[in-house]
Write a structure and sequence with these properties.
The chain has about 150 residues and is mostly helical. Helices cover about 65% and strands about 5% of the residues. It contains seven helices and two strands, in the order αβααβαααα. The radius of gyration is 15 Å and the shape is globular. The C terminus is likely disordered.
Length: about 150
């Protein structure tokens, strides 16, 4: 994402600048990896697998934004920024956006209607985000805290 695109999102209040932190970045990746792994457990209900994969996608997507030194309190915005933060195409972030809307219906209206195909698509989208976030590597020292603990391998 160009600095102009970041500035535009800051100006309209969609994201806010916040120094990147290597420990937070690593923690988000660990959280995403753990939830993604658990989401593949077929013994769990589809709803549980959906929740796990969705929260994995969010943690990993937020990690990409944090790597760039920004934060958003809006989950949808975090997903939308993927195309700019790590070059993810619409085939991935549209799945995440659809799942975001379904998750909200489940959370606020009690209508979580998921099927096996959707859960598998969400898991696949989350795996793609994980693959790209791991390519980011360490947060550049100019924006990171001093501790460098390393990014976990998938």
């Amino acid at each position: 994402m160009t600095s102009r695109q970041f500035k535009n999102l800051v100006d309209i209040g969609q994201i806010k600048p916040e120094p990147a932190d290597q420990n937070e970045f690593n923690g988000l990746i660990r959280s995403g990896q753990s939830r993604l792994k658990d989401s593949r457990m077929e013994i769990l209900s589809l709803e549980s697998r959906f929740d796990l994969a969705y929260n994995a996608a969010h943690a990993l997507s937020l990690a990409t934004l944090r790597w760039h030194g920004y934060r958003s309190e809006n989950r949808y915005t975090v997903f939308q920024c993927l195309q700019h933060t790590i070059g993810i195409g619409p085939e991935v972030w549209r799945v995440l956006a659809r799942c975001h809307n379904l998750r909200n219906r489940g959370e606020y209206e009690g209508l979580l209607e998921v099927n096996e195909r959707l859960v598998l698509d969400l898991i696949q989208a989350s795996e793609r985000v994980l693959e790209e976030v791991l390519k980011l590597g360490q947060i550049p020292s100019r924006t990171a805290t001093t501790e460098k603990t390393g990014v976990l391998a998938g």
